[in-house]
């Protein structure tokens, strides 16, 4: 047990499965209590188990974004109405609009029902976005890319390099812009100079970026990038065909599942045909990935192994989805979508509470992330 | 270990050979130093070893390359990754990942090392380079010297038998450069790696170089023992220059050897001190700055600095990287940030600043267009900037693209454009970066000429030899403050880090340059 809790990063896929499960659960309800609880759980786990890379600090941005979404949704209901009910909170004068914008109302009476509808709706969207933000903070996107199967390795490299280019591009722009200030002679200021802004900044920055990417490419080549064995044409054709077929099957299965139009028997309330197609398609894609990845002779430094803690995280996320799904099919389904007209006070059931508790467990039952920079608190150097 | 047979190289669009019939053999465990003027084909020669030239640069190469007895002429660079480790000039440009540890592992990941082997080697490399405390740090936050050490470590981790270094210290300040070069010498001694290194601070490397490869302008390469090749070379460090001029035998390569040869002369000067050239008289003040403060949220970059510049005076601004030199220049110019303090004499157009990356200011398609633009901006007669440029550096083709010019030529174009506004004060931010000995000599000529015309000049630089020949005054900064300010002859010889090679040889007599040494003898 002592070894289990040694600080180590959790596999990024596990966090993504957990976060997507939370988002799926949020998608199935408009109950503001449940949604707020999901946000609380996501925040709790994120603050307890996020690492110390720059991505981890981005979680606050997602929280602010979520709050903004709720505010905007409610503000729209107040401004333009919609979903109005009998309980009028405030009687605002309606702004008369010309005939060609008929159908749109500006201000007018604000009903409790309209505000609640906006609030529930916004809260649901905000919760889902915050869940994704939690995944982004808990799982370093770069480690996620590094954990991709071999077949997607080159795609991952491209993304990693592209992410790294942006700060450099920003630096170039700042430097050139600063240099441009030197040339601004008082006599030559005016329209003739202003239309050259694009030219004077863009050309040095772009040629800079081009030179740099050439040097990076040379450096990667020299260090053995792209040294994998090549597959025969025939083999590659097979791999591509299997992959494409898998994707088609997955798409059909997903369509049938989401549109709920699949024929055939059902098992535990799920359609066997659509689920079967999804499963088969997934298998085909996995097979194609495996075949394509075989030719990549590349290893990963300090790979994150899938261990007990990862299973625990996945299970905890799934428990939340299960709780919502079971409630949906039970007699208490109305709890998930509380009535707005007339407004009722939202409630939580024991089942949902248990699901929430399970989803919060990773905050306590997983090993803490290993903080690389604990020793280095001196960030001032980064500025010089 | 490395054998080139009849190797010639030219770019596809020109007939001029960059390398001509190169034959050479570097035995295992040797350190070979590559010297030659900028643009002579040093990088081309280095690139030939792991086939970056021509596989990556394009062009036509003939002849054969053999590494460890195996013909590698037509292999791709990536296939040589286990044999040859290659480190370029700018470490930051070559980093693929963003954390020290991952960067060290990158090459091994590509080569398919097993995770446990990789882990062991990363730990060993961290210790070998003395960067274990940096393992989790973002690469961008490291200092230049640390970055270059990581870059060397990242190729060493997969233990190549040959290490190729293309001017590894050119972007570093003297202390960091010494750090990196000391590391290289340790690798040669402890690991027995074969090293081929191009380095313009050759005085730091020649003492442990086994042989020197001199690339001449025509593309021919001379390979031989260090002293022999240096004695016939147009480019050599001041100490070797002194040794050649004084016919010292054997040629001194280290300060210690130099001091032994000069012992007699020093004894003579103790009894009869040599007459030293007098510093020029001070002209009227052109710019006076008082209590300049520049502060960023977490750092005070310049902490209350006073600067007075006089007509016809060349001032050197020295200090390690990050000591506030650049920030001070930008604050004096007025385009940069200034939180407190006053600058008198910096009225509009009176101060010109040439930034560190001079090419940032060049964006037109030809030198002529750049000059015409400068004329139009300063409302001068067409052609006057071009004329100034021809005076500064004769022989630049006005129709050539600024990006194709050498670093020194780019600098001259920017300087000419700045001069078109007839500034009284000229500030240059590290103009010697990427310049070789001959380009520095040309810069020296330009600065002297401008000072004689009555300009006040400030040069931020690490190059003590340039300071010794050109500058009248030295201001040394540390942590945003001025730590010493005085005539060059008072500041340089007394400092362990800033003394020129000649000053170290003649210490305690304050002679700075080879010319002064020779004059003092007669």
UniProtKB/TrEMBL annotation, chain A:
It is a multi-pass membrane protein. The chain crosses the membrane at residues 15-47, 59-79, 151-174, 238-256, 268-288, 309-328, 348-365. Keywords: Membrane, Transmembrane, Transmembrane helix. Pfam families: CbiQ. The keyword Membrane applies. One of its GO terms (cellular component) is plasma membrane. InterPro entries: ABC/ECF_trnsptr_transmembrane (IPR003339). Signal peptide: none annotated. It is found in: Membrane. The keyword Iron-sulfur does not apply. This is Energy-coupling factor transporter transmembrane protein EcfT. The lineage of its organism: Bacteria, Bacillati, Actinomycetota, Actinomycetes, Propionibacteriales.
UniProtKB/TrEMBL annotation, chain B:
Residues 2-242, 287-504 form the ABC transporter domain. The keyword Nucleotide-binding applies. GO terms for molecular function: ATP binding; ATP hydrolysis activity; ATPase-coupled transmembrane transporter activity. Gene3D superfamilies: P-loop containing nucleotide triphosphate hydrolases. GO terms for cellular component: ATP-binding cassette (ABC) transporter complex. CDD domains: ABC_cobalt_CbiO_domain1. Keywords: ATP-binding, Nucleotide-binding, Transport. Pfam families: ABC_tran. InterPro entries: AAA+_ATPase (IPR003593), ABC_transporter-like_ATP-bd (IPR003439), ABC_transporter-like_CS (IPR017871), ABC_transpr_CbiO/EcfA_su (IPR015856), ECF_ABC_transporter_ATP-bd (IPR050095), P-loop_NTPase (IPR027417). Belongs to the ABC transporter superfamily. This is Energy-coupling factor ABC transporter ATP-binding protein. It comes from Tessaracoccus rhinocerotis.
């Amino acid at each position: 047990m002592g070894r289990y809790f040694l600080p180590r990063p959790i596999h990024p896929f596990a966090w993504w499965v957990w976060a997507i499960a939370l988002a799926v659960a949020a998608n199935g309800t408009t109950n503001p209590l449940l949604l707020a609880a999901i946000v609380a759980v996501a925040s709790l786990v994120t603050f307890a188990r996020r690492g110390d890379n720059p991505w981890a600090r981005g979680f606050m941005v997602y929280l602010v974004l979520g709050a903004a979404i709720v505010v905007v949704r409610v503000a729209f209901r107040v401004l333009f109405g919609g979903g109005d009910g009998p309980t009028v909170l405030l009687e605002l004068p309606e702004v008369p609009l010309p005939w060609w914008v008929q159908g749109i109302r500006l201000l007018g009476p604000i009903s409790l029902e309209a505000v609640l509808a906006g609030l529930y709706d916004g809260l649901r969207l905000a919760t889902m976005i915050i869940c994704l933000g939690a995944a982004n903070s808990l799982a370093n996107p770069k480690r996620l890319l590094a954990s991709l199967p071999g077949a997607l390795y080159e795609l991952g490299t491209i993304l990693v390099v592209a992410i790294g280019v942006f700060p450099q591009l920003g630096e170039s722009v700042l430097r050139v812009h600063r240099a441009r200030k030197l040339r601004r002679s008082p006599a030559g200021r005016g329209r003739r100079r202003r239309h050259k802004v694009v030219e004077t900044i863009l050309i040095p920055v772009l040629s800079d970026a081009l030179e740099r990417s050439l040097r990076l490419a040379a450096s990667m080549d020299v260090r053995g990038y792209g040294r994998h064995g090549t597959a025969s044409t025939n083999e590659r054709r097979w791999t591509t065909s299997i992959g494409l077929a898998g994707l088609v099957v997955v798409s059909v299965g997903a369509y049938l599942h989401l549109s709920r139009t699949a024929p055939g028997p059902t098992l535990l309330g799920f359609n066997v045909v659509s689920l079967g197609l999804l499963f088969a398609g997934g298998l085909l894609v996995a097979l194609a990935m495996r075949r394509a990845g075989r030719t990549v002779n590349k290893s990963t430094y300090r790979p994150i192994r899938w261990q007990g803690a990862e299973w625990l995280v996945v299970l905890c996320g799934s428990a939340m989805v299960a709780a919502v799904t079971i409630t949906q099919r039970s007699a208490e389904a109305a709890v998930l979508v509380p009535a707005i007209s007339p407004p009722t006070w939202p409630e939580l059931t024991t089942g949902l509470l248990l699901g929430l508790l399970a989803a919060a467990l990773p905050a306590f039952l997983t090993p803490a992330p290993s903080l690389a920079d604990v020793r280095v608190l001196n960030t001032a150097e980064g500025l010089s | 270990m490395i054998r080139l047979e009849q190797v010639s190289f030219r770019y596809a669009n020109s007939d001029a050979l960059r390398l001509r019939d190169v034959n050479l053999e570097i035995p295992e465990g040797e350190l070979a130093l590559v010297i030659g003027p900028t643009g002579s084909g040093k990088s081309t020669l280095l690139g030939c070893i792991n086939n970056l030239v021509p596989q990556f640069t394009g062009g036509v190469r003939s002849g054969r390359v053999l590494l460890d007895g195996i013909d590698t002429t037509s292999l791709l660079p990536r296939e040589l990754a286990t044999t040859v480790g290659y480190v370029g000039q700018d470490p930051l440009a070559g980093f693929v990942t963003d954390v020290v540890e991952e960067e060290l592992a990158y090459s091994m990941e590509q080569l398919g090392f097993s995770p446990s082997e990789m882990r062991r080697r990363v730990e060993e490399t961290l210790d070998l380079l003395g960067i274990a405390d940096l393992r989790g740090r973002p690469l961008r936050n490291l200092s230049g010297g640390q970055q270059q050490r990581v870059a060397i470590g990242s190729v060493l981790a997969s233990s190549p038998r040959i290490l190729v270094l293309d001017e590894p210290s050119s972007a570093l300040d003297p202390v960091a450069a010494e750090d990196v070069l000391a590391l290289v010498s340790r690798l040669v001694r402890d690991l027995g790696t074969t090293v081929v290194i191009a380095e313009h601070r050759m005085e730091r490397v020649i003492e442990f170089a086994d042989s020197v490869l001199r690339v001449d302008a025509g593309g021919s390469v001379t390979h031989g023992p260090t002293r022999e090749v240096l004695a016939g070379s147009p480019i050599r460090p001041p100490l070797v220059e002194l040794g050649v001029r004084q016919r010292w035998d054997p040629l001194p390569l280290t300060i210690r050897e130099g001091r032994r040869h000069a012992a007699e002369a020093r004894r003579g000067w103790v009894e009869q001190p040599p007459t030293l050239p007098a510093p020029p008289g001070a002209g009227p003040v052109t710019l006076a700055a008082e209590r300049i403060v520049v502060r960023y949220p977490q750092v005070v970059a310049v902490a209350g600095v006073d600067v007075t510049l006089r007509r016809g005076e060349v001032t050197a601004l020295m200090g390690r990287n990050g000591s506030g030199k650049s920030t001070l220049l930008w604050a004096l110019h007025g385009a940069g940030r200034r939180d407190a303090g006053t600058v008198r004499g910096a009225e509009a157009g009176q101060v010109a600043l040439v930034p560190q990356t001079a090419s940032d200011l060049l964006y037109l398609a030809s030198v002529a267009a750049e000059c015409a633009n400068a004329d139009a901006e300063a409302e001068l007669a067409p052609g006057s900037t071009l004329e100034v440029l021809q005076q500064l550096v004769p022989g630049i083709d006005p129709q050539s693209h600024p990006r194709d010019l050498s670093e020194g030529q780019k600098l001259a174009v920017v300087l000419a454009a700045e001069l078109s506004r007839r500034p009284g004060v000229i500030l240059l931010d590290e103009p010697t970066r990427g310049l070789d000995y001959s380009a520095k000599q040309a810069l020296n000529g330009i600065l002297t000429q401008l000072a004689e015309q009555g300009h006040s000049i400030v040069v931020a630089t690490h190059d003590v030899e340039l300071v010794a020949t050109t500058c009248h005054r030295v201001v040394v900064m540390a942590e945003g403050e001025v730590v010493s300010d005085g005539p060059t002859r008072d500041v340089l010889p007394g400092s362990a880090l800033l003394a020129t090679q000649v000053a170290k040889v003649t210490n305690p007599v304050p002679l700075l340059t080879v010319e002064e040494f020779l004059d003092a003898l007669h």
